[in-house]
Amino acid sequence: MKEASRFEKMAARCWNLLNEGKPFTPIFVAGTMTIYHAADWMGGSWGWMLGLAAALPLFVIYYVYDYPLFLRNYLWIPYVVFLIVWSFADAALLLLASGLYFFFTVFFWGTLYYHLRIGTSWWNFTRFWKLVLKNSDSTSGNAQEQLPKVFLLLSVWEYASIQVERGADLAPLCGALWLFAALVWLFSWILHRNLFDWQPEIIPTYTNNVPSPTVPISDKVYVIVIDGMRKDRFEAANAPFLKRLRAQGTEFAQMETVYPARTVVCFTSMLTGTYPFEHGIRSNMVWKLGAKVETIFDSLRKVGKTGRLLGIAHLVDSFGDDVETVTAVMPNELADRYIIERAKRIVEEQHPDLLVVQLIATDQTGHSRGVLYDEYIEKIEEADALIAEFVAWLEERGELERATLIVCADHGQADGIGGHGHLDEGERYVPFFMYGPAIEAGKRVDEKRSLVSLAPTIAYLLGAPYPSHSRGPVLIEAMRKEESDETAARHRFFAGAQ
Ligand SMILES: [Zn+2]
């Protein structure tokens, strides 16, 4: 299967500028103004740019505050206040902005982009517009967040430009509008501080629930991440293999993802054992490459072991050379099949001690067609069959004899364009289960656990030190009693021998 090319890695980064809501807002507003004033600047008149000075503080505030989930409703208040106080609305400008916005999201992204990248139909807009209207994630596809932000920024910018062109002084104009911005900042700060209270709790200490392991329990660990597999939709799917694996292993029934639940953020937390504030990856838009803390791959290197992550190009931003990339530009019905074939080749050629495989078709169908439709369930069922085949292949080759298998998702998906980020319904808890000779069979852990436990649990299984900033407790409940007793005995033996 084709690797992601250098061009694809660059293109993926550029696309993020339009895909992530934060950079999108200023780019879109500036683009809309440039189009609206095309006749002016072509005629050499740049007065319309001056008003930007008055709007600048608001750009910063709307970049910092994303007004997650229901908070977005409050975005209309500053806009209405502006309408009342300044009695200014340029209907043509707002109409142009709305038109461009829906053209970009519904046609360019929802139809053309998905058609070229994963082969969805040319008619996808007939579904996609409904998804954009409901969508609640942190991307530019969140119409209910983007439209009021865009309306206010455009209005302030245009209003100030007109006033300056009519001869008003820029300084007092900026004074008044900056004061307004200061009030919007205060309003945003109070709202976020008091209403935005659903972020997962952060584990305050570094991993310490079991001593750092010195002897491995497993020879190999295989982690299969079904990207964006929503828990209740997995339950609804006919996935006999995965459900049997879960029944014969240990299930963590309340496995919580991290905030913001964006793919690169989640994978980085899963494979470093800590949170965005510490590993530095705060969205899919990675400004500074590389996780700031040790990853599980670094831990493994310390004991002479190897780990590989097979996933999309975005993950290189966090994990660099530890990633084997797969191209995300291919028909979605082929994507997971190719990934599994590539995973087999990595096992054959490199024999890594840890292999993390990211299956992407379920997530992509959720994003392009929505999660509450049958197409999404079908993708989960296809993943089930592919994983069954992969596991049988591993078994045949004797790769599973002392191996542990972990199956999970990085985050769920909400209604809308399969969005994820702000932990809306369906995003927060993910399927997570472990299976293997060292793992308790038929066990279910109902206490809440976090995906940051993945890295230290892999380290524990493979006898490697925990990554430097790992905070998640080792999922020790999953370990067979005899295995952990035997390991403890060996710990004592080695401790005594020193
Ligand atoms: Zn994801």
From TrEMBL:
Keyword Transmembrane: no
Domain Metalloenzyme positions: 327-464
An MF annotation (GO) of this entry: isomerase activity
Keywords: Isomerase
Pfam family, one: Phosphodiest
InterPro entries: Alkaline_phosphatase_core_sf, Metalloenzyme, Phosphodiest/P_Trfase
Record PANTHER family: BIS(5'-ADENOSYL)-TRIPHOSPHATASE (PTHR10151:SF120), ECTONUCLEOTIDE PYROPHOSPHATASE/PHOSPHODIESTERASE (PTHR10151)
Entry protein name: Alkaline phosphatase family protein
Protein source organism: Geobacillus zalihae
